[in-house]
Amino acid sequence: MPDHIYKKIELTGSSTVSMEDAIQNAIARANKTIKNMRWFEVVDTRGYIEGGRVAYWQVTIKIGFTLEDTMGDSTVIEESID
User: Fold this and answer.
1) pTM of the model
2) Structure confidence at residue 77 (pLDDT)
3) Which of 20, 22, 63, 67 has a CA 20 to 30 Å removed from the CA of 56?
4) What pLDDT sits at residue 72?
């Protein structure tokens, strides 16, 4: 197995449903432009309170992905995530 080089990005997902849903939303959005995602770690969790109830959750994660070999398949093109 060749050595891998990883890059990390930090994203904050939100959801009115749950913390897990906020994580899934962030990963699903990143998947549109980031290739070779391998893992994530939760960095921060917070929520917004409205009327004495949780209105939505915000979860900040770091996503690790492998960089592709420029001699092999293709190079990674970094794009901003809107």
Assistant:
1) 0.77
2) 45
3) 63
4) 54
Rounded to an integer, what distance in angstroms lies between the CA atom of residue 3 and that of residue 26? 27
Neighbours of 26 (CB within 10 A): 23
Amino acid present at 36? N
What are the Cα distances from residue 59, in Å, to 17, 43, 82? 12, 8, 16
Q: Please report where in the chains the tokens 């949780």 appear, as a residue.
A: 54
What does the block give as tokens for 77? 């093109």
CA distance 6 to 22: 23
Phi, psi of 71 (to 5 degrees): -85, -15
Contact call for residues 22 and 13 (beta carbons, < 8 A): yes
Which amino acid does the sequence have at 6? Y
Tokens of 8: 């990390």
User: With the C-alpha atoms ordered 16, 19, 25, 30, is the resulting torsion angle positive or negative?
Assistant: positive
